[in-house]
């Protein structure tokens, strides 16, 4: 369960209260986590709050940061500043684990701690007292709870995991989201607190005051809006230039994007593949997507340039069909797709994507856009079926300000774990495609004319379906 949203909603109190619910059970163990020890020990934070509540009723062990209750139950405070810090809890068992500010943690840390949520089994030589205590513990539910404001390095995966709907409690596949609001905390001077938050930037105010998960400080693409950038139809014409871009992953997803360029220089991510796999497996899927829907037609095209991370040329220790040192690029070439080395300058890539996504007050929306003819159009759009790219555009965070190139590029740790579609989009955008050249008349080739005429007959359709998805 995630209790999240506005700052000041009493999230830490709720988390601490949940952890203390079963401290009368002798073998009960609870763990409360922050990302760093500094966060844990802040005045008014979890550990400080626990001292206010528990001094005189339980024993505090400073070395282990653990409260021990008269029953023998324990409440431990911990942190996971680095990825491998989760292994400090290896071998331990807890019946309650709570994450305070979940979006500060990585998804891998959160997933690993689920393995510590368990009960000890009854040993073969257990005494009657041990059996009685373990039977009591068996009545205690295993609980994972989290509290968080929007924002942070984990904003994207938390948004993906929980059914977050602004202002509405929701449940999906056993995952529960409860929105936190400033008015939920009876111990807070709401008027004064609201006044202090009103002086923040728009994104931070919406995040902390409104609990808006669609806006957060450090958002890489705050200009990305569904009503502006997401489209449901596009009249793909036979003469439009096409290119592809990809970010390869074997265990992580491979993101492969398909882009046409219209006659006004707009680029559209019209289709995408997002799945881990060997180059041979990925190639088979890409070639399938490239096949024309109309027999004898041109379809998407088999000879488009594919822009990829330059690391695809790194040697992988085997030999290609040509007898040279194999790379990811030669693996794709051996299976029928050549790739070109894209520009992986993260600062330039961020700037280029922002240039393409930022609305231009003097530019009119194209005829295929729902806002056709209105001013304020960007130059980059995404088809609504490309859900991973849409989600990542909304949740991509900037490199934190206290790190090298802070606020100048997308957080590389986030991109490596959660942002493969955005990385592929960077390689594509950095190719700087020119507007397609519109032919003065249809060519004599009846196949090309048939494809274009099919699009024209497809009223309300997306054009793309005529080529690929029919």
CATH topology-level name of the largest domain: Nucleotidyltransferase, domain 5
Spatially, the strands of the biggest sheet line up as 3-4-5-2-6-7-1-9-8
The helix-and-strand class reads: alpha/beta
Number of domains: 2
Q: What fraction of the residues are assigned to beta strands by DSSP? A: 15-25%
Reported CATH architecture of the largest domain: 2-Layer Sandwich
Residue-averaged pLDDT:
85
First and last CA, distance: 41 Å
Principal-axes shape call: globular
CATH class membership of the largest domain: Alpha Beta
Please work out how many helical segments DSSP would assign: 17
Helix content: 25-40%
Spans where pLDDT lies below 50 across 5 or more residues: 293-298, 450-470
Gyration radius, to the nearest Å?
Answer: 27 Å
The counted number of beta strands is 21
Largest sheet: 9 strands, mixed
């Amino acid at each position: 369960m995630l209790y999240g949203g506005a700052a000041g909603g009493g999230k830490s109190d709720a988390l601490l209260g949940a952890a203390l619910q079963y401290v009368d059970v002798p073998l009960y163990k609870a763990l409360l986590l922050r990302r760093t020890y500094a966060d844990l020990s802040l005045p008014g934070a979890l550990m400080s709050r626990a001292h206010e509540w528990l001094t005189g009723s339980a024993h505090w062990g400073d070395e282990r940061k653990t409260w021990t209750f008269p029953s023998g139950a324990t409440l431990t405070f911990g942190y996971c500043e680095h990825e491998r810090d989760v292994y400090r809890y290896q071998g331990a068992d807890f019946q309650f684990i709570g994450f305070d500010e979940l979006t500060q943690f990585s998804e891998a840390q959160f997933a690993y701690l689920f393995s510590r949520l368990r009960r000890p089994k009854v040993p073969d030589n257990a005494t009657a007292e041990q059996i009685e205590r373990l039977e009591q513990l068996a009545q205690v539910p295993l609980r994972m709870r989290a509290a968080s404001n929007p924002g942070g390095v984990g904003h994207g995966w938390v948004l993906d995991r929980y059914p977050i709907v602004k202002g509405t409690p929701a449940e999906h596949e056993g995952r529960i989201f409860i929105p936190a609001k400033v008015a939920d905390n009876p111990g807070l001077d709401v008027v004064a607190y609201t006044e202090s938050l009103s002086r923040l930037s728009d994104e931070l105010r919406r995040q902390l005051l409104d609990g808006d998960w669609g806006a957060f400080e450090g958002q890489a693409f705050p200009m990305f809006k569904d009503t502006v950038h997401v489209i449901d139809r596009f009249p793909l014409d036979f003469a439009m230039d096409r290119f592809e871009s990809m970010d390869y992953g074997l265990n992580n997803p491979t993101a492969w994007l398909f882009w046409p360029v219209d006659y006004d220089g707009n680029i559209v991510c019209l289709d995408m593949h997002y799945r881990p796999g060997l180059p041979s497996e990925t190639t088979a899927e890409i070639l399938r997507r490239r096949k024309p829907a109309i027999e004898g037609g041109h379809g998407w095209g088999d000879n488009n340039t594919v822009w990829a991370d330059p690391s695809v040329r790194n040697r992988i220790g085997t030999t290609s069909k040509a007898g040279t040192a194999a790379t990811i690029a030669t693996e794709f070439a051996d299976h029928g797709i050549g790739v070109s080395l894209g520009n992986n300058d993260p600062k330039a890539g961020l700037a280029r994507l922002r240039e393409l996504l930022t609305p231009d007050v003097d530019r009119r929306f194209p005829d295929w856009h729902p806002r056709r003819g209105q001013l304020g159009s960007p130059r980059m759009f995404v088809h609504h079926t490309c859900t991973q790219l849409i989600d990542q555009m909304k949740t991509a965070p900037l490199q934190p300000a206290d790190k090298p190139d802070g606020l100048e590029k997308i957080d590389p740790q986030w991109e490596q774990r959660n942002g493969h579609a955005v990385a592929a989009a960077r390689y594509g955008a950095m190719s700087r495609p020119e507007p397609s050249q519109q032919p003065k008349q249809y060519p004599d080739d009846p196949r090309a004319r048939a494809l274009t005429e099919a699009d024209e007959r497809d009223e309300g359709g997306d054009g793309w379906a005529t080529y690929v998805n029919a």
